[in-house]
Amino acid sequence: MTQTKTISVLLVDDEVLARERLKRLLQDERNYHICGEAENGEQAISRISELRPDLAILDIRMPGIDGLQVAEHICTMTPAPAIIFCTAYDEYAIKAFQYQAIAYLLKPIRKEDLLSALKSAGKLSQLQIKQLQEQTDSNEQSPTFIARTWQGMEVIHMEDVFYFRADHKYVTLVHKGGETLTDQSLKQIEDEYPDQLLRTHRNTIVNRFHIKSMQRNSAGHYLLNLSEQHQVQVSRRMVSEVKEALNKL
């Protein structure tokens, strides 16, 4: 399982006391690191471009460029930071969510509400996912897999993937960096990469690129040998299809 990634957070609010309160709420949360602050929208845009935070906590009403305009700018970035709006006003909620906001919190912010929002923001925003998928589509030489893990999203190059193995409601992705647990189903993954992946068992799909050979052991079971001495079982039902794939390698 991959190591927990610290989420970098930029605080944007024109009130010093509001920023100080957010810092107090997060001071004991080791998974989150406040990488910077901004006291207005113009400064926020500059800091976001400079610091590239994973997450921006935005006030909405600020002098000059407001939080919604900052969010509009964020939507042009690749990848884009996730957004949490923290405001004293509730009338901007519909507009705020047009910018793919993870949460819309009303001041005074309660710690449990903030942490709940941060847990969701630990995942890539829908905008980030879309951008990463577009990058994958435009770069056929190096496609990537976006794993939805319990820690958030993890981007893994498909060329580094050996195989996917289903276990109950989760799938383990075995790759050059180790193992990653994702909540996507094998069917979803198989449908996303039909030319690169091959089904070998009802609970296993492998990367065709890493297939080396197939053998039959003394018990009569078929085993597929992959790169770096990885080995997976081939079900009897899938043997002919795997043999056909081997002939095309």
Outline of this structure?
By secondary structure, the protein is α/β, with parallel strands linked by helices.
Keywords for this entry:
single chain; 249 residues; alpha/beta; Rossmann fold; OB fold (Dihydrolipoamide Acetyltransferase, E2P); 5-stranded parallel beta sheet; 5-stranded antiparallel beta sheet; 8 helices; 15 strands; 33% strand; elongated
What do you see in this structure?
The chain is α/β, with parallel strands linked by helices and 249 residues long. It folds into 2 domains: 7-126, Response regulator (Rossmann fold, 3-Layer(aba) Sandwich), CATH 3.40.50; 140-248, Beta Barrel (OB fold (Dihydrolipoamide Acetyltransferase, E2P)), CATH 2.40.50.1020. The chain has 8 helices and 15 strands. The chain has helices at 16-26, 41-51, 67-74, 93-97, 111-121, 126-138, 186-192, 239-248, and strands spanning 7-12, 32-38, 55-58, 82-87, 103-106, 144-149, 152-157, 161-167, 170-175, 178-182, 197-201, 204-207, 211-216, 222-226, 231-234. A 5-stranded parallel β-sheet has the order 2-1-3-4-5, with helices on both faces. Strands 10-9-8-12-11 form a 5-stranded antiparallel β-sheet. Strand 3, helix 3 (67-74) and strand 4 (82-87) form a beta-alpha-beta unit. Helix 2 (41-51) packs parallel to helix 3 (67-74). The two termini are 31 Å apart.
